[in-house]
């Protein structure tokens, strides 16, 4: 088909969203994928670094005979000029973590569009799936916007709502959104081809923005209530993981935990206090006990039961747990007790 839309795809080199977008765009009868712009050499998107399976956008694109650009900075002089020579109709951005300059946004004949995993204008910015799980949202969405010079501020072309169960982890929500974005791309392509799509401006008075999660966002603060801590654990799963430190500096990553029922170990009155029983290991929070189910220590995942990992917590007996979020000046007592 001679009148296929010419598209340039922007995505991170190891993106689990970019890889299926590449396959769809390269095979679709209405699209001619003319180039892929991806990460600089030796730069990976942190979202996917610890996934069991990996992808490489450059290898996939070159195998299909598609031109690949890996500029150090996408806004560097000459990048826009090089892409302009290809005369694309659209730039499609799918998990690309550099801002496109005004010169780049002016390159496509029709538009630059971005797929964003949140219900814009809410959760603009990086890693919205992390923040939505951490904040306990019951509703999510994926959005396609026509890009402007702002960060995730352009008008909305298409948006799909996603109901959450409040049991999602960051990885499970991210993966589900990736699949839904591929389906939305397939639905959107005919509208892009005939120019029939419309744009609805975002109500930026309702905008919320979140940046890249920092180390302190993964450090568990046992002064918080148990349900909040459960959300933080699911948000941190699996890398780098929600964690705390034992007195000797051992880092304990909590992979899963529950608020137990019917456990007769008294009322938690000292946040951070660890109790061992024959059935499990419990940590006191601001309001309830939190039972650890699985943990990771020194890269080894273990069920959190005393007969398999007692050595992890023995060091904490009558000593203190470091809680860097709560206070750097007052340690909490790790009153490890056997029941």
Automatic annotation (TrEMBL):
Family, similarity comment: Belongs to the Fmt family.
Domain Formyl transferase N-terminal: 30-179
Ranges for domain Formyl transferase C-terminal: 215-298
GO cellular component assignments: cytosol
TM ranges: none
Entry protein name: Formyl transferase
Gene3D superfamilies attached to this UniProt entry: 3.40.50.12230
InterPro entries attached to this UniProt entry: Formyl_trans_C, Formyl_transf_N, Formyl_transf_N_sf, Formyl_transferase-like_C_sf, Met-tRNA-FMT_C
Organism of this sequence: Photorhabdus laumondii subsp. clarkei
Alphabetical list of CDD domains matching this protein: Met_tRNA_FMT_C
Keyword terms, alphabetized: Protein biosynthesis, Transferase
GO molecular function, one term: methionyl-tRNA formyltransferase activity
């Amino acid at each position: 088909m001679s009148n296929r839309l010419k598209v340039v795809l922007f995505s991170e080199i190891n993106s689990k969203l970019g890889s299926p977008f590449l396959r769809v765009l390269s095979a679709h009868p209405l699209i001619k994928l003319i180039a892929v712009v991806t990460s600089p050499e030796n730069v990976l998107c942190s979202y996917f670094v610890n996934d069991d399976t990996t992808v490489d956008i450059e290898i996939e694109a070159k195998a299909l005979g598609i031109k690949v650009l890996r500029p150090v900075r996408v806004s560097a002089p000459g990048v826009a000029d090089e892409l302009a020579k290809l005369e694309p109709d659209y730039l499609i951005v799918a998990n690309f973590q550099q801002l496109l300059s005004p010169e780049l946004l002016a390159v496509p004949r029709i538009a630059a569009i971005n797929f964003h995993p949140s219900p814009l204008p809410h959760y603009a910015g990086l890693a919205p799936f992390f923040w939505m799980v951490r904040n306990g949202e019951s509703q999510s969405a994926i959005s396609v916007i026509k890009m402007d010079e702002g960060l995730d501020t352009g008008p909305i072309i298409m948006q799909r709502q996603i109901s959450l169960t409040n049991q999602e982890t960051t990885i499970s929500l991210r993966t589900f959104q990736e699949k839904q974005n591929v389906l939305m791309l397939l639905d959107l392509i005919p509208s892009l081809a005939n120019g029939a799509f419309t744009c609805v401006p975002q109500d930026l008075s309702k905008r919320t923005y979140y940046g890249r999660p920092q180390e302190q966002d993964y450090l568990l603060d046992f002064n918080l209530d148990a349900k909040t801590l459960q959300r933080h654990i699911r948000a941190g799963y699996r890398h780098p993981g929600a964690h705390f430190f034992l007195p000797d500096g051992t880092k304990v990553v909590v992979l899963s935990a529950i608020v137990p029922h019917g456990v007769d170990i008294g009322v938690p009155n000292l946040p951070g206090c660890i109790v061992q029983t024959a059935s499990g290991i419990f940590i006191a929070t601001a309001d309830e006990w939190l039972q650890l189910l699985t943990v990771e220590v020194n890269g080894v995942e273990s069920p959190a039961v005393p007969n398999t990992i007692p050595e992890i917590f023995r060091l904490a007996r009558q000593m203190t747990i470091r809680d860097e979020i709560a206070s750097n000046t007052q340690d909490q007592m790790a009153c490890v007790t056997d029941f």
